[in-house]
Amino acid sequence: ETGVTQTPRHLVMGMTNKKSLKCEQHLGHNAMYWYKQSAKKPLELMFVYNFKEQTENNSVPSRFSPECPNSSHLFLHLHTLQPEDSALYLCASSPGHSGANVLTFGAGSRLTVL
Amino acid sequence: AQKVTQAQTEISVVEKEDVTLDCVYETRDTTYYLFWYKQPPSGELVFLIRRNSFDEQNEISGRYSWNFQKSTSSFNFTITASQVVDSAVYFCALSEVDSGNTPLVFGKGTRLSVIA
Predict the structure, then answer these.
(1) Which residues of A touch B53 (CB under 8 A)?
(2) Residues 6+ apart with CB under 8 A from A38
(3) Candidates A48, A100, A102; nearest CB to B103
(4) How far is B45 from chain A (nearest CA, A)?
(5) Which ranges of chain B have pLDDT less than 50?
(6) Residue-level pLDDT at B69
(7) Do A45 and B105 touch (CB under 8 A)?
(8) What burial letters (b/e) apply to B11-47, b meaning 16+ CB within 10 Å?
(9) A96 confidence band (pLDDT: 50, 70, 90)
């Protein structure tokens, strides 16, 4: 596989459930990102990892917990979410964490919280 | 603080018309990068162009062209002879370098519908 792959593509969960979103990149990149895309809101940066180290946490509630075991994989663990957390969660990667770098995005995981 | 404004929420055009998508940005940095991404219905953002703050030359790529004007802090995107496959949401984005290589900040996007 090539590019950035996100699984699952669709997820429905109750507020008391615990689930995880997975992102995998086959581009040899060293930086990975989670963005949240809600209806009528701009894409919001959630987390940035550079060489497996978290470099940005954009005031994200603790019910979202990221994990980056290596430069190719990024997870977003979800627990006790709220209905307003329903959104498209986009993963991206780039060669490094530089303003010049082009981000390559996955197709997203659409989350619905009931 | 940085900000990207895409004032046009939705645009509809008839196939073969030209259309311009506006993008205005705010930054105090002198070194920064501007981007355009396309998001088709499949959801994946596709990179279209990157421009650094020192390169104001306009760029043309096939039916796509970009007009970067620092004097007005704008980076507008024009599609010539639009096609149905151009229907998507288009995002303008900014990344600052002087402020420490900030991650991309996106505008709210413009939804373009091209009608056959």
Answers:
(1) none
(2) A44, A86, A87, A88
(3) A48
(4) 6
(5) none
(6) 94
(7) yes
(8) bebeeeeebebbbbbebebebbbbbbbbbeeebbbee
(9) confident
